[in-house]
């Protein structure tokens, strides 16, 4: 692949976005887990829960600070690397980002300070309220970001203005309640909850293997396994909702994920595994599960899901319609107020396909001069990379189901086996710590790579969105980002490992004193409750 201006811009933004998303899921989930732990502390008054809240809150704080640093850089890239995109759709895309910055982020940042420095200055209940406001702010911030991204996937509540040559918002509430954005939000935050649950479970498992901080570790596993099980089940259910949404908002993406070249008779089957072949336009050695794709994609057994070949043919027709819209647009641009009403009517009739005509800009300066061969090539460009999407989706789903199994097992042992965990299970808990990050990154790859060749689906091709920068500028800034983010990653890992190895160092005397009294009560009453000290099997 030859790396030109657009490809390098995409590579730089992809690296920035995917690196930033290493921090986001842990922030989303850990903020909720910390708030739950502090809730238990306020309800019971047991200092062990306060110690747990402070310990996991410290790890949350480290992750939060570094996540903010990478997120700010990413937002600046819209203006630097994607200036035409910002000009073309900035009226719509900029609104949720502005709301996120002014409302959600400042709310989150303000209460994070109160959370860390208000322990001895606020009452128990007031501090608990702050903890929940931090969690709400973190998740609220994600909502507005995902509303902006959801609009790129399914642009509603906006239309192209031929007089200003830009997209303009027509209905703010359609943008906010965009079905794709809402499905992405609940799916993404649930994935973040799973990530945090696996992280807490893994670190706690390591403590039990080392025989350190066992009381904190057992309680943390109890919270993480219950929370993680609910979240993992939610991810699967809400992922199904995303599939249903894609069946009528992003049909090409769904067909590519399935490696579905030809339209199947209803109800479509789900391809479990196979080897997609883009050259032969078929999926070799495919193993199908009958009816499943029809149920996921259409919620019925009677509706078909169009295949890639059919969608390419539809794209060809839309390109022809888009050329008509483009021709009318050029007339409007030249004649302005003197434009005949019939020309404006022609534009309005075909305006929804204008973006498809812009796909031809890759091959010809004026889409009206395109040949049928070029139109066919542009229609083929609407097919994203089938192989990478096919496998990324299946690995992600496989990991998702594995999290359900892991959380279910630990929840069972925590609830019904006296908090005793076999050493093999504890080792597994440590080993799988990176897995939810892999799944989350694959999920974003499917969402964003599956949208190509569009920056805004059906509206603005990626090839037209980039700034007019030199290759040298991009290579220098790309190298700078790689170096900067590598340093940040080393700092993040170093701080995390430092504080994990250090363990819960706050409120140690008070907690140890309470634990001694608690252990004495258990011995006195021959108790073997869920939090009684038990050796690992």
Automatic annotation (TrEMBL):
Q: Give the keywords, sorted.
A: Cell inner membrane, Cell membrane, Electron transport, Heme, Iron, Membrane, Metal-binding, Transmembrane, Transmembrane helix, Transport
Keyword Protein biosynthesis assigned: no
Membrane topology term: Multi-pass membrane protein
The record's section on InterPro entries has: Cyt-d_ubiquinol_oxidase_su_1
- One Gene Ontology MF term: metal ion binding
For whether the record's keyword set contains Cell inner membrane, the answer is yes
Where in or outside the cell is it found?
Cell inner membrane
Q: Which regions span the lipid bilayer?
A: 20-43, 55-72, 92-117, 129-152, 190-209, 221-239, 391-412, 424-447, 474-497
Q: Name one Pfam family in it.
A: Cyt_bd_oxida_I
GO BP: any one term: aerobic electron transport chain
Q: Which GO terms describe its cellular component?
A: cytochrome complex; plasma membrane
Family per record: Belongs to the cytochrome ubiquinol oxidase subunit 1 family.
What protein am I looking at?
Answer: Cytochrome bd-I ubiquinol oxidase subunit 1 apoprotein
- Organism encoding this protein: Celeribacter neptunius
